[in-house]
Amino acid sequence: MKRLVLLRHGQSSWNLENRFTGWQDVDLSDQGREEAYAAGQLLAQHDFRFDWVYTSVQKRAIRTTWITLDALDQMWAPITNDWRLNERHYGALTGLDKAETAQKYGSEQVHVWRRSYATPPPPMSGDDPRHPRFDPRYAGLRPEWLPATESLKDTLERVMPYWKSKIIPRLHDNNTLLISAHGNSLRALIKHLNAISDEAITSLEIPTGEPLIYELEDDLTVVQSYYLREGV
Ligand SMILES: O=C(O)[C@H](O)COP(=O)(O)O
């Protein structure tokens, strides 16, 4: 039996302020740090020991990883960071207040931008200083890989090749992996793992800082998936 644990980062400062975040590199709020520590304590109570850890190149997920591993006393666990596990890029909505944007464009339109499978938000201008082409952490990537906006489908299309080429082989060689990432990179992965339809994925929400466990056969068939904390 293999185990894969998916963990959405703890509450970020922009989750707290209700702002669209995407590729903006905001940190955890105090509550987010507490959630990450509590996630590690819960995993420790259930004797999880991670053979490998995957996270994004965004500090809210990286710090969640560090705090969770600290609470587990497993800071020695190998960690791989990859941009393909980043949050979906929120395009021109990045930084805007979610409630104000719903007032301006209507809550139906905002729901489509946030939760539809294939409709991306309006793109960020290529001249915007927040565009990933100006960010040194992406300097080694092909320009056509750098998004100015992403739908969940676009996100899935960059997460899947990474899952297949890097994480699956590691899962074949090891028993227990942690993927510490973001609401929408994890929704993409869950859509694949649970074979969720394009329609049904629109209502899937992932809480911050709650370990989601996948038990897998040796051939990686999903046996069951569940939140570790009762009542989540
Ligand atoms: O990027 C963000 O704003 C959040 O992390 C996820 O946002 P969502 O709930 O609108 O998908």
TrEMBL record:
Keyword check for Kinase: no
Enzyme Commission identifier(s): 5.4.2.11
Active site: H9 (tele-phosphohistidine intermediate), E87 (proton donor/acceptor)
Residues that coordinate or bind substrate: 8-15, 21-22, 60, 87-90, 98, 114-115, 183-184
Biological role: Catalyzes the interconversion of 2-phosphoglycerate and 3-phosphoglycerate.
Similarity section: Belongs to the phosphoglycerate mutase family. BPG-dependent PGAM subfamily.
Name used for this protein in its record: 2,3-bisphosphoglycerate-dependent phosphoglycerate mutase
Organism per entry: Nitrococcus mobilis Nb-231
